[in-house]
Amino acid sequence: MIPALGRISLALLFAMGSASPVFAQTAYTRVLPASKVDFSATQMGVAMHGHFKTLMAAVDFLPTDLAKSHVSVVINAASVDAGSGQTDDLLTGSDWLDAKAYPQDRFTSTGFTPAGPGKFWLTGQFTVKGKTQPLRVLVTTHPAGANLVMDADFQINRMAFGLGTGSWADTGVVAAALPIHVHLVVAPQG
Fold this sequence. Notes:
- Helices cover 11% and strands 50% of the residues.
- Strands 1, 2, 3, 4, 5, 6, 7, 8, 9, 10, 11 and 12 form a twelve-stranded antiparallel β-sheet that branches.
- The longest helix has 8 residues.
């Protein structure tokens, strides 16, 4: 189960034409288990996919005061699942996520900018393996029944975060770009 630490109100996003007034008045407070963080990597030309089994998300979007809006996503580094125990052990080890020394990776927002109906730019700080870099991602939203879906796709340069050291440092072995997909499903308050 994925705990929710905040609420989201969508009046601004849906007032721009992407939903009915009912959604514009709804506050969302519970991040549902369907939420996930997926990643990809390319090793010697072969794509590998995985996800993190444990995350916490806090969303506080105030459409009338974007300066007070906030999103944070915290990932349990040891919960990585790349499809095999051997690969998971490698990824949680010191060359990659170093989950013992850095048990959590996180994104913490610093601001929102509207980007059109159901979309906004989210800026913030992304911390992995104790290294923090600025990050700007485009978030798209849409209703799913009574819930709200928030999706973001972006890439990080693994070298900027010290991911893949030692024999894994060669970007000819594992590409520097790591695509990431964040999918949050948020239920209404109540």
